[in-house]
Request: fold
Amino acid sequence: MNLIAKVPPDTQDDLSFYEESVSSRMLLGTALYPSPQVMADAVKASGCQIVTVSLRRESARGKIGARFLELINSLDVHVLPNTAGCRTAKEAVTTAQMARELFGSAWIKLEVIANDDTLQPDLFGLVEAAETLNEDGFKVFPYTTEDLGAAERLVAAGCRVLMPWGAPIGTGRGLANPYALKTMRNYFPDIPLVVDAGIGAPSHAAQAMEMGYDAVLLNTAVARAADPVQMATAFAMAIESGRMARRSGLMESRDMAAPSTPVAGTPFFDLGAPPKT
Amino acid sequence: MPSTGTSSSAPEQIQINVNGEECKTHARTLEALLTSLDFSKIRVATAVNGEFVAAAARASLLLSPGDSVEIVSARQGG
Reply:
């Protein structure tokens, strides 16, 4: 496949999720930072335009949520609420409905978790919740696996973005199954695909982008870095680099060596191979 | 066990569950419950027995003994 022919003629390379255009291909989580200020600084340093947030039971007379909401609103980014921790389609649907009212956005990062140890998506619950939410006018960003059957169901349910995992949430293991992720990219050439979860290093993010993924969603690798703000910048550069490489047309790999320096005119070439000593 | 609602003319207390904790309240509507818990001026979202209750529907949502109420707000997330 000639990738070069796919490069758009202009330098414009915006990405759209549900008709919302963004120029940054990094989606950043807001949890686990040393402080709210470090989180805000990391978001700014990354240049990301979409951050993920969640809902939790309110206590202390509601001050915690109000302060967090104020900080998030000051960042001037799109907010993508999640349904993290939900174990059934019903829990996820109710959480999404609460999120829509609280954040004033129909965007929802849909998570239905099957297992506490792997935090892997429950694909059956995910599809069920996606069907309900799409019918209710939500714009669903499903956290899924590379399973193409589930992905087709999600698309049929109305999802116009898919977010397969790289590796289990919080593991930082990178792209555990590159073959399956490549297959998914090829299978859905026209649907925005985001690698979500498992990204531990900028090189993982670059790999996803080189593979043709449209964006990368991460949290822990930035938030738990010794210097989260600098790490946010490092990821932003890697994502941009990977995207640029994808658009530039990566070379095909091969098994045998091929000299890059011209062979013609090599001195001593006609003397044959030197004797083995 | 926290007790909410202070009016002496209020109806008898009922026992419900709020955010995972048992709670006795005089409140008969979700809106009254939020007021009694000092949430009336705070931006929260609510659900009762697993069903979303929109802000506009809180005043007409009648509480029954044993109801489970969720009161949530914004938090950090990944």
About this structure: The radius of gyration of chain A is 22 Å. Chain A has nine helices and ten strands.
